[in-house]
Amino acid sequence: MADFETPEFREYPTIPLIKQDVMAGKGPFVSRAEFDTDLGYPGELPEDWKEKTLEKMGDLLGRYRSLQVFMDSCIKCGACTDKCHYFIGTNDPKNMPVARQDLMRKVYRRYFTFAGKFFPKLVGAVDLTEDVLDEWYNYYHQCSECRRCSVFCPMGIDTAEVTMAAREILAHVGKAQKYSNQIIQKVYKIGNNLGLPGKALKGILEDLEEEMEDECGVPVKFNMDEVGCEALLMTPSADFFAEPHIDGLIGYGKVLHELGITWTVSSKASEAANFGLFIGSYDNIQKISMRIREAAIELKVKRIIFGECGHAWRVAYSFLNTLAGPFDFLDQSYPIPQHILEVTYGALQEGKLRMNKAENDHLTMTFHDSCNVARASRMGDRPGGQFDIPRAVIEASCNNYVDMDADTIKDATFCCGGGGGLLTDDLMELRIKGALPRMEALKQVTEESGVTNIAAICAICKSQFTKTLPYYGFEMDAIMSVHQLVSEAIVMTGSMQEKELDGVDEEEAESESED
Amino acid sequence: MSAFYALLLTVAFLVLIIGLSKKIIQYSRVPAPLKIPVTPAPLTKGGVAVRLAKEAILFAALFRSNKWTWLFGWMFHMSLFIVLLNHLRFFITDVPVLLVLLQNVGEYAAFTMFIGLTGLLVRRIFVARVKYISAPSDYLWLILLMVITLTGIVMRFISHTDIIAIKEFSLGLMSFNWQDLPTDFPLMVHLFLVAILMILLPFSKLLHIPGLFFAPTRNQVDNPREARHISSWAAELDAEKNKVQPK
Amino acid sequence: YQTANARSQSEKATSKVRWGMLVDTTKDVDWNKCVDACNNEHGLGNEHKSRDDQKTQYIRVVDVKNKGTGYSISLPVMCQHCEKPPCVDVCPTGASMKRPDGIVLVDRHRCIGCRYCMMACPYKARSFVHEVLSDQKENTPRGKGCVESCNMCVNRIDNGQEPACVEASDGAIIFGDLNNPESPISKILAKHGGKQIRADLKLNPGVHYQGI
Amino acid sequence: MATISVEGKDIEVDEEGYLVNLGDWFPGVATVMAEIDEVEMGDDHWDIINFLREYYEEYQIAPAVRVLTKAVAKKLGKAKGNSKYLYELFPYGPGKQACKFAGLPKPTGCV
Amino acid sequence: MKKLHFLEVEGNTKGFFTFLGLFGLISLIGILSAYYMEHNGHWVTGMNNQIIWGTPHVFAIFLIVAASGALNIASISSVFSKTAYKPLSRLSGIMAISLLSGGLVVLLLDLGRPDRLIVAMTQFNLVSIFTWNILLYTGFMGIVGVYLWTMMDRPYNKLTKKAGMAAFIWRLILTTGTGSIFGFLVAREAYDSALLAPMFIIMSFSFGLAFFLLFLMGSYKYTQRELGDYIVSRLKNLLGVFVAAVLYFVLVYHLTNLYSADHRDITVFILTGGGIYTFLFWVVQIALGSLVPLFLLYGPTGKNRAMIALAAALIILGGMAQLYVIIIGGQAFPMSLFPGMEVSSSFYDGVIASYAPSLPEILLGLGGVGVTLLLMTVAIAALKFMPASLADEVADPHSK
Ligand code: SRM
Ligand code: SRM
Ligand code: HEM
Ligand code: HEM
Ligand code: SF4
Ligand code: SF4
Ligand code: SF4
Ligand code: SF4
Ligand code: SF4
Ligand code: SF4
Ligand code: SF4
Ligand code: SF4
Question: I need a labelling partner for E30 at 20 to 30 A (CA). Which of A103, B242, C66, E314 fits?
Answer without folding.
Answer: E314
